[in-house]
């Protein structure tokens, strides 16, 4: 009655691509293989337990409730998350639980006793994701295409095991989608006024409060934070300022200066669906430099500023804010015993040329500065001190908010995504890995809390 | 620029939900005490527009939480968390007799929810909302696989949950309108049941030969499901609505092949010629067509066709012989089938036979015939065509919208508990009086 001569993997691929219109599966098929480790199928005499995730389609910053039911009592199980990045790398996380007297587990309230995280961590399976054993070095999880979700497969395995062990029995699984864009959010490519960026507009008529979204010197155009802001009701423009093929000049130099960022801010002000009086700026890492430059430039009045792990100035900039090559001055670079580089000392306030430091005391709007205390890329704490002191001296302490997170690293990003302690910076002339810092659990806690506080800050200063 | 315009924030969480999931609609940052209208708009697959709305007053913090605050008036009133969905109705000027049913379950139902200044009741298309969001409602969870089944001459669709299985199985039958209706099976698969929706009235076989299927058709469906490597062959249930109930009871009681772990019968009856084929059963109803009544709106009432409940045992499925748990769902205002009278008779028959511990009855005052998965609009009547009567009739289903919607929500929740406990739970068959 059922026949097939296809491999299990191929059937699985075809099912996922919805190409198979009528399935015929041989009765003796052994079950579905995973990328790492082999899985035994249980017999047909007893149905599998039930694993559920709610909501099964969620935004990246939403909590998901994962439950396993109809297991046995006091039964050890492993919950495992697996997903593929856009580059094709497998990321996974796992945790060990034991069912209670009601034969169930609930990740919102139960404690993991081992694995990628311990303790009660409802979203641990997401923030503790790591590249699978055997992956390339120095990977970082960043979504390029925000119009599609991450598909994360959550599975329930028998016993306390790990994804890399052979012979695991998979009891149940559920697929979750994690989105950066809510339904109705509009993504608009911007290539005008020499700006290279992407604008995200929330659904609805507007006008909307808006954010200018600036990232660091890794370069390129990162859209995911802006997509999330728009999903939360804020128009958001993310701009690239180096490392993008549509920008002038070589990709490893910042060939655009102050006028570029001003144009971007102006674009938001002029947009018919943006409220010109309610625009803020957020900068991470090097993005803090143009953030502070806009805020201290005459004629520009952002409603609020959010600075994450960035410096008040830079040794690289000329008067127009264009940069020299980053690698031209390596005297403050520090290497660890693996040859990974920490750039932290480059941005110590004493190492920054005085003329590059902006007059922060001239800022007229609220400023939130977020510090990862284990930041190995930027001297965040010291720069936060400089900003705080400058504002205090000008009688503007009430404008300053500092969030400081022990154990958190440089890349404080939207929550429930993995922490990269180090990643590949470049490959020529030879491979260079940069240290970001941060330890998974405290970094995850920092991302979760900071994101909530960032959104509240934006609501307060852009909407009320 | 009007200060209010930029400030009002509307959010719906989750923005992508399953059809039976609740959401929280929140308005924030409005002027305290201001009057606002929250409205839902949906365009269904056949192009008709549906809307629902409620009138609210923002509290002292400028907030409206639809799950906690009352709608003063609108298409729903009171505290109704999901009122914006279940009270959807065709916009003024629409064709009469519409019923919302999704055909393509691989795409979501999209609903635009907006908030407007003041208490508006009409002309929304000409107003600019203060804020709006788009919400997706899905019948299929990610990872659920949709597999058309033509094995053994079947016209069916199998929905498999994600994961290795094996999963308990479910045969899903609809009523006299025929067609292959997939949405309930897709949703049940999203809850962990390998569900097969079956077209047994307008199958390819019937369309090509002009003949109705025989009893073997259902047994073939059962076998196909049972033998699937990802289905737990010893845990299969059947769910039927309306005429689907007749088939479900027939198979549950009389089939030598079909061994059900549980049966759910919604808005149906056990009255049928016991020895009859599908065709003969339909013929039995047709014979009584003269008992059709019409109300003042000329809507057809078919509930009398099977009344009075016969005493002749050859005209009633012998529920005393049932060996699996049975959940009956009854709308007390059902104008299409005598579900309530049938339920009472079933109860009596099972009490006499000594198997009433298997029976659970959910009976809902003012609910009508079409008790479907929750948070979709109630149709008190709609145009309908059975496979027997070739022309469309305006059929009265019954039910009052508020109570019918509550019944759908409550029944669905209990159907899921019933199925889970019987198919996943592994308990001995008992009644579910705690439901």
Automatic annotation (TrEMBL), chain A:
Pfam families: BAAT_C, Bile_Hydr_Trans. This is Acyl-coenzyme A thioesterase 4. InterPro entries: AB_hydrolase_fold, Acyl-CoA_thioEstase_long-chain, BAAT_C, Thio_Ohase/aa_AcTrfase, Thio_Ohase/BAAT_N. Residues 61-192 form the Acyl-CoA thioester hydrolase/bile acid-CoA amino acid N-acetyltransferase domain. It comes from Oreochromis niloticus. Residues 259-463 form the BAAT/Acyl-CoA thioester hydrolase C-terminal domain. GO terms for molecular function: fatty acyl-CoA hydrolase activity. SUPFAM superfamilies: alpha/beta-Hydrolases (SSF53474). Belongs to the C/M/P thioester hydrolase family. GO terms for biological process: acyl-CoA metabolic process; fatty acid metabolic process. The active site is at 285 (charge relay system), 375 (charge relay system), 410 (charge relay system).
From TrEMBL, chain B:
The active site is at residues 242, 334, 369. Residues 20-151 form the Acyl-CoA thioester hydrolase/bile acid-CoA amino acid N-acetyltransferase domain. Residues 214-424 form the BAAT/Acyl-CoA thioester hydrolase C-terminal domain. One of its GO terms (molecular function) is fatty acyl-CoA hydrolase activity. It comes from the Eukaryota. GO terms for biological process: acyl-CoA metabolic process; fatty acid metabolic process. Pfam families: BAAT_C (PF08840), Bile_Hydr_Trans (PF04775). InterPro entries: AB_hydrolase_fold (IPR029058), Acyl-CoA_thioEstase_long-chain (IPR016662), BAAT_C (IPR014940), Thio_Ohase/aa_AcTrfase (IPR006862), Thio_Ohase/BAAT_N (IPR042490). Belongs to the C/M/P thioester hydrolase family. This is Acyl-coenzyme A thioesterase 4.
């Amino acid at each position: 009655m059922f026949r097939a001569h296809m491999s299990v993997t191929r059937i699985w691929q075809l099912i996922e691509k919805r190409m198979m219109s009528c399935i015929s599966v041989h009765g003796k098929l052994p079950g579905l293989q995973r990328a790492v480790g082999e899985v035994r199928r249980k017999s047909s005499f007893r149905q599998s337990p039930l694993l559920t995730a709610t909501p099964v389609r969620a935004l990246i910053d939403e909590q998901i409730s994962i439950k396993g039911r109809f297991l046995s009592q006091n039964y050890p199980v492993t919950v495992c998350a697996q997903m593929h990045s856009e580059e094709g790398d497998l990321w996974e996380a796992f945790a060990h639980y034991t069912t209670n007297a009601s034969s169930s587990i609930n990740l919102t309230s139960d404690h993991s006793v081992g694995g990628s995280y311990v303790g009660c961590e409802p979203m641990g399976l997401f923030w503790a994701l790591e590249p699978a054993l055997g992956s390339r070095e120095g990977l970082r999880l960043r979504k390029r295409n925000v119009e599609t979700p991450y598909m994360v497969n959550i599975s329930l395995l028998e016993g306390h095991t790990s994804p890399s062990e052979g012979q695991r029995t998979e009891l149940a699984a559920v697929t979750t989608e994690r989105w950066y864009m809510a339904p109705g959010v509009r993504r608009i490519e911007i290539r005008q006024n020499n700006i290279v960026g992407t604008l995200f507009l929330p659904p609805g008529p507007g006008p909307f409060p808006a954010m200018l979204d600036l990232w660091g010197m890794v370069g390129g155009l990162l859209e995911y934070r802006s997509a999330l802001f728009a999903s939360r009701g804020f128009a958001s423009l993310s701009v690239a300022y180096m490392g993008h093929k549509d920008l002038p000049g070589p990709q490893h130099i910042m060939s655009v200066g102050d006028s570029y960022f001003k144009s971007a801010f102006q674009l938001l002000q002029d947009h018919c669906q943006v409220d010109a009086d309610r625009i803020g700026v957020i900068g991470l890492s090097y993005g803090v430099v143009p953030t502070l430059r806009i805020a201290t430039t005459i004629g520009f009045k952002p409603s609020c500023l959010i600075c994450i792990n960035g410096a008040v100035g830079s040794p690289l900039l000329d008067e127009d804010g264009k940069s020299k090559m980053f690698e031209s001055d390596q005297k403050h670079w520090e290497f660890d015993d693996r040859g990974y580089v920490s750039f932290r000392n480059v941005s110590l306030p004493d190492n920054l040329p005085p003329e590059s430091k902006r007059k922060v005391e001239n800022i007229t709007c609220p400023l939130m500065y977020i510090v990862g205390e284990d930041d190995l890329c930027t001297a965040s704490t010291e720069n936060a001190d400089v900003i705080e002191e400058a504002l205090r001296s000008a009688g503007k302490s009430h404008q300053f908010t500092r969030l400081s997170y022990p154990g958190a690293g440089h890349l404080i990003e939207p929550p429930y995504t993995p922490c990269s302690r180090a990643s590949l910076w470049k490959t020529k002339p030879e491979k260079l890995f940069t240290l970001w810092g941060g330890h998974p659990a405290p970094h995850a806690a920092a991302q979760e809390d900071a994101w909530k506080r960032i959104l509240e800050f934006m609501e307060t200063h852009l909407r009320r | 620029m009007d200060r209010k315009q930029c400030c009002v924030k509307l959010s719906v969480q989750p923005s992508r939900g399953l059809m039976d999931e609740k959401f929280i609609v929140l308005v924030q940052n409005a002027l305290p005490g201001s009057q606002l209208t929250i409205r839902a708009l949906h365009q269904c697959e056949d192009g008709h527009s549906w809307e629902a709305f409620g009138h609210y007053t923002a509290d002292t913090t400028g907030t409206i939480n639809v799950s906690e605050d009352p709608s003063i008036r609108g298409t729903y009133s009171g505290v109704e968390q999901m009122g914006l969905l279940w009270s959807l109705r065709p916009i003024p000027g629409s064709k009469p007799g519409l019923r919302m049913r999704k055909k393509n379950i691989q795409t979501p139902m999209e609903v635009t929810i907006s908030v407007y200044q003041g208490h508006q009741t009409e002309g929304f298309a000409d107003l600019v909302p203060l804020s709006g969001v788009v919400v997706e409602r899905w019948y299929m969870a990610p990872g659920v696989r949709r597999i058309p089944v033509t094995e053994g001459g079947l016209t069916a669709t199998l929905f498999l949950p994600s994961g290795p299985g094996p999963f308990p199985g479910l045969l899903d039958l609809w009523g006299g309108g025929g067609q292959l209706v997939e949405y309930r099976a897709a949703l049940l698969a999203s809850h962990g049941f390998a569900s097969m929706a079956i077209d047994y009235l307008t199958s390819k076989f019937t369309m090509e030969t002009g003949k109705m299927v025989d009893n073997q058709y259902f047994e073939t469906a059962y076998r196909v499901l049972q033998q699937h490597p990802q289905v737990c062959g010893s845990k299969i249930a059947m769910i039927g609505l309306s005429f689907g109930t007749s088939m479900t009871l027939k198979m549950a009681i009389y089939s030598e092949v079909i061994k059900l772990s549980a049966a759910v019968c919604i808005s149906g009856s056990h009255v049928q010629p016991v020895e009859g084929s599908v065709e003969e059963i339909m013929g039995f109803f047709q014979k009584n067509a003269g008992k059709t009544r019409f109300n003042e709106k000329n809507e057809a009432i078919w509930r009398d066709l099977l009344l009075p409940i016969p005493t002749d045992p050859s005209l009633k499925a012998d529920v005393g012989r049932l060996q699996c748990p049975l959940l009956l769902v009854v709308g007390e205002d059902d104008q299409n089938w005598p579900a309530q009278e049938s339920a009472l008779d079933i109860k009596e028959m099972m009490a006499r036979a000594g198997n009433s511990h298997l029976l659970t009855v959910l009976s809902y005052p003012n609910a009508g015939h079409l008790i479907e998965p929750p948070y979709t609009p109630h149709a008190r009547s709609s145009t309908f065509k059975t496979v027997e009567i070739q022309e469309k009739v305006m059929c009265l289903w019954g039910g009052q919208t508020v109570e019918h919607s509550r019944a759908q929500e409550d029944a669905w929740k209990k159907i899921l508990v019933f199925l889970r406990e019987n198919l996943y739970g592994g308990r001995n068959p008992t009644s579910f009086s705690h439901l």
